[in-house]
Amino acid sequence: MQPFRTRLALILLLAVAPATSAQTRWATYANARFGTTADYPADLFSRRDPEPENGDGVRLHTADGRSTVDCFDLTYPAREKTTEDAIAARISKSLRAGKGIDD
Question: How far apart are CA 79 and CA 1, in angstroms?
Answer without folding.
Answer: 10
